[in-house]
Each structure stands twice: as C-alpha cells, then as structure tokens.
Amino acid sequence: MAFAILAQQPAWALALAAVGLIVATRAAVLLALWFYAAFLRPGKPLRARYGAWAVVTGATDGIGRAIALELAAAGLGVVLVGRNPDKLAKVAAEVRARRPGAETRTFVIDFAADGLAENVAALAESVRDLDVGVLVNNAGLCYPYARYFHEVDEKLARDLIALNVEQVTRLTHALMPGMVRRKRGAVVNIGSGAATILPSDPLYTVYAATKAYVDQFSRSLYVEYKNMGIDVQCQAPMYVATKMASIRNATLLAPSPETYARASVRYIGYEPRCTPHWAHGVVWYLFSIVPEPLVDRYLLGMSLFIREKGRAKDARKKAL
Ligand SMILES: NC(=O)c1ccc[n+]([C@@H]2O[C@H](COP(=O)([O-])OP(=O)(O)OC[C@H]3O[C@@H](n4cnc5c(N)ncnc54)[C@H](OP(=O)(O)O)[C@@H]3O)[C@@H](O)[C@H]2O)c1
Fold first, then answer.
1. In a mutational test of the pocket of ligand 1, which residue from 55, 57, 60, 63 has the highest number of ligand atoms less than 8 Å from its CB?
2. Which residue from 21, 103, 262, 318 has the least number of CB within 10 angstroms?
C-alpha cells in the first residue's frame, strides 16, 4: 500500500523526501550522541589510563581549583600550580580533606612575571620524578572589562599573550616528552567559547584571539599525538561563575566552577574540541543556527554595556 502511494509521487517529491529523511536522521543521531555524552557517558579511568598524577595550572581559584579537587577525588595525585603560596596551601588542604591520603604538591609561579622560559623549566623539573598523566592548562587571563582594541594597554596585551598563549605552549612542550616516553597522557587546554563557539567577541578581541590559538594548538596536537596514546583536548566553556567572569552566583547558563569541573573531568579523553557543560552545549547549538551578523550585533551591544559599567566603576574609584 505504502509502496503504491510512493510509486505515484513525482521523482522530485521523492528526492526531496529522501533528502529530508537523511537530514532528520542525521539530526536525531547527533542529538542522541550529544545527550549520551552530556548526561550518561562515564568518565575515563584517569589514573589507569593516563598516569598517577595531574598538573593543574591556576589551581588556586575558580575552574582550576574545582578541577584539581575533582581529579584528586578521581584518585590522582595533584600538582597545584599558582602564584599565591597561601591560596595554594589552602587548596592542598582542601584536596586532602576531600580525599584523605591524596598526594599533593604545590609549585609557586607567576606566569606573567619576567623569565617565563626559566620559570616553566623549573616547574617541569620539579615534576620530573612523577608519572604525570594529565596536564590541565587552565591558568588564564581576560580583560578586567570590555574595551576597544585601541584601549588595550601594552601590559594587558603582553600578559594576555604570556598567560593564554606562551605558558600553555611552553608547559605542554616541557611535559609532552614524558608522556611520549610513557606512551600515555591527556592534555586538557581550557580555551573559551569566545573563540570556539562565538563568531566574534567584540571588545575582548585580544582575549578571544589568544583562545583561538589554544583551540587550533589543541586540535592539531590532538592529531599529532593520538597515535602515541596521548589525548589532547580543548575545552571551551561559556560563562562559569568565577572571579574572572565577575559572576558571583551560579545560574543555569553560568554554572558554579564545581558543576563545570564535574562535567569537565568526565569529558577528559573524549572529543578533541568540546564544551563539557550541557547548557553551554545548547548555547553552542543556538549560536550556530542564528545568522552571524545578528549574533555580532547582540555581542557588540552586550560588550558596550559592560564597557560603560566598567568605566563608571573605574571613575568612581578614581573619585575616592
Ligand atoms: N569563568 C569563565 O566564564 C570562563 C569562560 C571561558 C573560559 N574561561 C577560562 O577558564 C580558565 C580559568 O578561568 P577562571 O574563570 O577559573 O578564572 P579565575 O577564577 O580568575 O582563576 C584563574 C586562575 O589562574 C590563576 N592566575 C591568574 N593569573 C596568574 C598568573 N599570572 N600566574 C599564575 N597563575 C595565575 C589565578 O590565580 P589567583 O588565585 O592568584 O588569582 C587562578 O588560580 C581561564 O583560562 C579562562 O580563560 C573562563
């Protein structure tokens, strides 16, 4: 019966229906795969698969601190890297409280200070005796608030490149040979939706451009090292409620660092380019179907609003 009805249809209608069926099936499969990855897929057994230790940069606050706690809970020893010794000691104590017996080390380094090459070499030397299986390049810097490119001063531009580009490259370069030797490892680079998800990030241009470097750096390393047992990944979060984002209270679209970290650690070793928190995945999809000029206009408006608020706050501080 159904075949008889189909046989009566003109060829163009059948062709159109076939294309529609293929498109709908593809969308349904992608949705099912995303749902599985976002909510059901178990994390990899990190210690057994990659090694006993994780190195986490920017581990004293926000996303890095939460990821370090999560990795320790998953059974890894953690090397906490940050610029503030007191905050590092506090996070180390939190790690041990979360998992008694967890091994921790701390390393003090200011990635924006002069002598980055020597400082990173010293960090790499300090972990040479460890089976470092997971490297989380998380430390990063953003603008204090939105501003035009010509308003970005020399120091801010320099620090953005030092933190978001140079130290990520140097530390990965320093720890990769050990992973190659052991034939296993995971490198997790925290990029940003500003580069991977959004078509533009006006008034945050240098920040977004540094994160575009992280995206392509990770994607190419993923291909280079996959056959050597090393999984390189760029995670591109949208907003997370941290001091960098100036968001105090978590919301659906700006999860707490702890919520983000649970998703983040569960994604390690899977897709080379991803946004682990499910709500950010929905935002990624929505931005992908809206025409870019509309998104650009919306983002510019939002950044101009943030710039005005930031300038007003600066003016109030100066007046005191
Ligand atoms: N939060 C978001 O909405 C968001 C969105 C997309 C991407 N990201 C990315 O996620 C990563 C973490 O951001 P976050 O939101 O967790 O930021 P955060 O709360 O400000 O934490 C940043 C971490 O990096 C450390 N750090 C900053 N400057 C440093 C320096 N010069 N030397 C050494 N360590 C330094 C900080 O140390 P102190 O504790 O001493 O300050 C802190 O541990 C960054 O790469 C960021 O670009 C964040």
1. 63
2. 318
Catalytic residue (choose from 204, 207, 260, 267): 207
Please give the model's pTM, rounded to 2 decimal places.
0.95
- Cα distance between residue 242 and residue 245, in whole Å: 5
Local structure of residue 265 (DSSP, 8 states) = H
Structure tokens at 53: 């230790």
Name the stretches of the chain with pLDDT < 70. Answer: none
pLDDT score for 4: 85
pLDDT digits (tens, 9 = 90+) for 217-263: 999 999 999 999 999 999 999 999 999 999 999 999 999 999 999 99
DSSP 29-42: HHHHHHHIIIIIPP
Could you state, in order of their start, the residue ranges of all structural domains in the chain? 50-318
Using CB distances shorter than 6 Å, the residues near ligand 1 are 58, 60-64, 82-84, 87, 109-112, 138-142, 163, 190, 192-193, 237, 239-240, 242-245
Ligand 1 pocket: which of 109, 170, 242 to mutate (most atoms within 8 A of CB): 242
Identify each DSSP E strand in the chain by its residue range: 53-57, 77-82, 104-108, 132-137, 185-190, 230-235, 273-274
Angstrom distances, CA of residue 219 to CA of 58, 169, 187, 235: 22, 13, 11, 11
CATH class for domain 50-318?
alpha beta
